[in-house]
Structure formats: C-alpha cells, structure tokens
Fold this sequence. Notes:
Blueprint: H1 2-38, H2 42-85
Helix pairs in contact: 1-2
Amino acid sequence: MYSAVVLGFLAIVIIISLIWTLRIFKQEENKLKEYEELGQTAEEEMQRAEEYEKKSLSRDMPRLLWIYAITIGLSLIIFGIYFYTI
C-alpha cells in the first residue's frame, strides 16, 4: 500500500516535469510559426538565430535545469523512502 503511494507520487512528479518541458517547447514552436508567417529574409533569420541562442542559454536552460534538478531530487528522495521502508 505504502509503496503504491510513493510510486504514485513519483509518477505525478515525472508527469509534471514532462508537461512543463513540453510547454516550453510549445512556446518556442509558436515563435517559429510566427517568424515563418512574417516571411523573414536570410539575414533576419541569422540575426534571430543568434539572438535565440543567447536568450535560450540565459532563459530556457536555467528553467530546464531547475525542472530536472527538482524532478531528480524528489525522485531520489522518494526512492530512498521507498527502499528504507521495505
């Protein structure tokens, strides 16, 4: 019974991190569609790509690192509790 609760909680944590990651990817996908609709030139696309790389590293990567750090940390804690109670 207890192990089912722990595994259920772990599944919820993993699902939340997956949804959060997919949300970030969807935001980026929407930006790409918007740029395609504007019909940008090659120079504008290069400038946008450089800008994206800078922003992605400073904005999106820390978010993803936090998402996975929290997920992995909680997973390890839950597995520790699970194995301690066996």
